[in-house]
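User: Second chain of the day. Same drill as before.
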Amino acid sequence: MTKNLHRWLSIFSRKSKEEIKFLFLKKHKKVSFKDIKLGNYNHFIIDPDIQILKIDHAASLRNFIHIFVGKKASLEIGKNFFMNNFCSINCLESISVGDNTLFGENVKLYDHNHHYETTPDFKIHPNQFNTEPITIGNNCWLGSNVTVLKGVSIGDNCIIGAGCVIYKDVPSNTILINRQELISKSSI
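Assistant: Same format as last time:
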């Protein structure tokens, strides 16, 4: 079933909204889409045993979007969500995005890391993961090339500047920028 599921999910960009909604609801009782706008060449990989996938009304997903929701994982996206080109959501446990939130181009969300060992020898396990939920509040803007890592909570009304890697919680009403410092030749 997973191969067939993957095949029909990967052809979504060639289907109308109603066909997509029908296909998802027919195969998945735990999936909910309302008034979603899809661009071209989007790719969805949804495990048949997810907890929930909910994309609330008036969501707009531009082009070349990748969404992966693994076994027993939960992805919930609020109202009026906008995702620009080349964004990626990779969910093995839980990702929640609030209402009126927008992502610039190439935003990436990962609620997991590969499991690794350092003793007695260094080893990375390609099929074992450590997971922690990601929560992004209402009225947030994540600029281009932002990466959000596992265990992060971003409060309401936040702006995350382009190029930031978010690995710690961000309180509500915060503007976070990736500060670039110039160093003069005389101080080197």
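The radius of gyration is 18 Å.

User: Great, on to the next one.
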